[in-house]
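> forwarded from #structure-qc
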């Protein structure tokens, strides 16, 4: 029986600890927060979109970084496996639109409760409030972990925690283990405990990490007129993205929902675009994102539609005449972009101006200048480079006994329950082979 330590009690860590214990090891799970799965509570807007029920090939097509690396882990512990593990521990699940799977109760907390039950039954020892600071390889084999009570993210929090613990309890704690599984997550939403510690641990063992950058994150834009549109949500629009330096090269095309925020663009279409652009944006590349506000109408059909609206409102201001076609917040912005004054009378509008208007509606474009920060990013792109990790076992090839699983690795996927599944599957693989 080996002594295994799992660092991080998120999705990957809980599965790693569970499968390591099920495989007959003595397992201790160290988590710096006061509870397990702090991030899980906020997933899926508090409902936890815990996996996606699509088939294997479709699943892999939603993985944006290193899908081939994940082949074995996803086969070894699939989307069905996490559902049956949760169901057998008191958390029935249901599948919604887009094959998204949620707990039947709609409460993310039920996912964590079920996993806690599984951990207890498997005999995992859980240490909360325990922050791992350093991992050292022992000369005679195995590892030593140096930990301290977690001080929290702010000064006030640290004071409260210190008081709670009482005097004299701030000493370092030392743990010994035959093997260590690092499941410390990435850098996104750092208040949940994911502060990039795993990258530091990896680098201390000579492993390289791909520079982390925020992904599934809102985008910032150069044009100021988004500010007039704050709060406006658009449904059934089409978005396409091209590099600023190569307008003919379409990198992303998708139809759906987006919204204008106080800082730029957000919503499902934009988050998905960010997963494709994040790395290049971080490296300084710029893109043009063009919104087709009427994707169901060809340019000719749109012109016919505008003509029809105009014929019913010949003496109106053009701003008002567009009432049926565009939301009110959009009208002044679109007219300005088309170079048409909002108070012009419809009967005054030339054919050329009308065509310019249609063109602007079909290609309402913004220059993407960057992403928002890790504090608003659903996931971190980058992390421990997977070429150094055995894809079947998650063990570092150069450091026997040291394993990595979950978001700390350079793996990520689109939204839809895929990212949690990557954490469940890689965590399970690490625990199974530890
Ligand atoms: C707002 C939001 C919504 C999301 N919604 C979804 C969704 O609905 N579906 C989906 O599939 N994905 C979703 N995700 C992504 C998903 O939550 C992550 O991909 C997943 O949680 C990663 O799991 P992990 O275990 O690798 O890392 P984490 O969940 O980040 O867990 C890492 C754990 O390690 C602990 N830790 C870190 N360093 C140390 C240390 N030194 N010592 C001890 N403990 C340490 C942390 O406290 C933390 O508990 C969402 C993410 C966010 C931010």
């Amino acid at each position: 029986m080996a002594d295994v330590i799992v660092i991080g009690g998120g999705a990957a860590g809980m599965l790693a600890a569970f499968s390591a214990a099920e495989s007959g090891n003595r397992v201790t799970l160290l988590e710096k927060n006061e509870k397990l799965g702090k991030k899980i509570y906020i997933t899926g807007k508090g409902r936890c979109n815990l996996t996606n029920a699509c088939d294997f090939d479709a699943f892999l097509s939603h993985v944006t970084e290193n899908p081939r690396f994940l082949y074995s882990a996803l086969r070894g512990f699939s989307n069905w496996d996490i559902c049956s593990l949760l169901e057998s521990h008191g958390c029935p699940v249901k599948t919604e639109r887009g094959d998204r799977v949620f707990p039947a109760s709609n409460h993310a907390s039920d996912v964590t409760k079920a996993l806690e039950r599984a951990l207890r039954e498997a005999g995992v020892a859980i240490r909360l409030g325990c922050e791992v600071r350093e991992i050292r390889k022992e000369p005679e084999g195995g590892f030593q972990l140096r930990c301290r009570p977690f001080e929290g993210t702010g000064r006030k929090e640290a004071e409260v925690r210190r008081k709670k613990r009482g005097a004299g309890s701030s000493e370092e704690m030392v743990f010994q283990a035959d093997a260590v599984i690092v499941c410390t997550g990435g850098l996104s939403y750092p208040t949940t405990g994911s502060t990039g510690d795993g990258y530091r641990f990896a680098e201390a063992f000579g492993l390289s990490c791909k520079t982390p950058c925020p992904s599934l994150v809102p985008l910032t834009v150069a044009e100021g007129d988004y500010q007039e549109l704050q709060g406006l949500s658009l449904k059934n629009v089409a978005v396409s993205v091209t590099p600023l330096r190569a307008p003919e090269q379409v990198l992303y095309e998708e139809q759906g929902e987006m919204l204008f925020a106080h800082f730029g663009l957000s919503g499902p279409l934009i988050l998905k675009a960010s997963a494709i652009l994040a790395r290049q944006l971080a490296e300084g590349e710029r893109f043009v994102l063009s919104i087709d506000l009427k994707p169901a109408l060809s340019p000719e059909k749109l012109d016919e539609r505008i003509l029809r609206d105009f014929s019913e409102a010949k003496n109106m201001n053009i701003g008002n005449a567009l009432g049926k076609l565009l939301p009110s917040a959009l009208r002044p912005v679109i007219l300005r972009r088309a170079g048409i004054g909002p108070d012009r009378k419809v009967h005054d509008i030339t054919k050329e101006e009308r065509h310019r208007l249609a063109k602007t509606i079909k290609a309402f474009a913004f220059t993407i200048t960057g992403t928002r920060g890790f504090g608003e990013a659903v996931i971190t792109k980058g992390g421990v480079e997977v070429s150094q990790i055995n894809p079947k076992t998650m063990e570092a090839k150069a450091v026997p006994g040291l394993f990595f699983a979950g978001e700390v690795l350079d793996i990520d996927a689109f939204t839809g329950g895929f990212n949690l599944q990557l954490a469940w599957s890689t965590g399970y693989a690490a625990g199974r082979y530890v």
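QC bot note: Residues 3-214+379-433 form a domain with the FAD/NAD(P)-binding domain fold (CATH 3.50.50.60). The first helix runs from residue 11 to 22.
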